Amino acid sequence: xxxxxxxxTPAEAREAAEEFRSVHAMIRTEVGRMxxxxxxxxxxxxxxxxxxxxxxxxxxxxxxKTLLVSSLGKAIDLSFSRIQFTPDMMPADxxxxxxxxxxxxxxxxxxxxEGPLVANLVLADxxxxxxxxxxxxLLESMQEKQISVGKRTIKLEDPFCVMATQNPVEQExxxxxxxxxxxxxxxxxxxxxxxxxxxxxxxxxxxSNEQIELKPVSDAQxxxxxxxxxxxxxxxxxxxxDAIKLVMATQPGNEHTASMVNDVVALGASPRGVxxxxxxxxxxxxxxxRFAVATEDLHAxxxxxxxxxxxxxxxxxxxxxTSDDVISEVLR
Length: 332
Known about the structure:
The chain is α/β, with parallel strands linked by helices. It has helices spanning about 10-30, 40-50, 65-75, 90-95, 130-145, 180, 195-205, 220-230, 235-250, 260-265, 270-285, 295-305, 315-320, 325-330, and strands spanning about 55-60, 75, 80-85, 95-100, 110-115, 120-125, 145-150, 150-155, 160-165, 185-190, 220, 265, 310. It folds into two domains: about 1-90 and about 120-230, Rossmann fold (3-Layer(aba) Sandwich), CATH 3.40.50; about 235-330, Orthogonal Bundle (Helicase, Ruva Protein, domain 3), CATH 1.10.8. The strands form five sheets. Strands 3-6-9-1-10 form a five-stranded parallel β-sheet.
């Protein structure tokens, strides 16, 4: 199947959808050898990768967020790097810098030494510990798929995906992500606690001599092909209209606004929210065995797509209302 995929016939559409589900299942199964439970989180991370988006994982420490992303890097033959953000980290620490080197003849030359951003899959651990200056360097790579050092611009190789983690409870030494950067994430996934039975499996895997080695079951070219398949999924006009109205319903002061939004929302989802809804809906449609997006796909992905794009005002926060509550009301 070529990179310029088109599914002009029902048979081609079925073949593309079957290939997509097969690749998804292989990667999911391999990651599942390391990650216990968290099926929804694994599916969300894979959906972001296939939709060419970035993902923000939020949860308390010890839930396996970092392990999940590193396991994904092992299950797919991609270049992988991990950045442990700290308040003293500078932009050059993540994108790279020019260094003076000595050659064999005794002379010197300036060479660019790549930073950890030059990779296919980047784990940005505890991203909210980075200063705004360093976050802006990450923002450029997420949006433009490039890094700038002096007058030099380096294009990042496809596929490129940033998977960031943050702790929702720590405040000291953290810098909350600005709305402009949050909007660059396709999903914000809330990672919950494991189920009771999962604790037993976690204990057996981590407190014994059992060693699990993950093997690559896919590669960069396959991921790029899957992204072409996702893009080729058609969207009926009425589903496009539903996506637009759904996003507009989160914005205060228009004809589609949900009743509670005007009272408790300071900032609604942007046009990027509509794009993200459609892309995520395409991935879900393929996984459901369909080669067309339905409104039910939009509703299924809406919480993960919109929760970081809806900003609740002070009145809403004082009443204990969260962005998830607003999205639930909008969907109703």
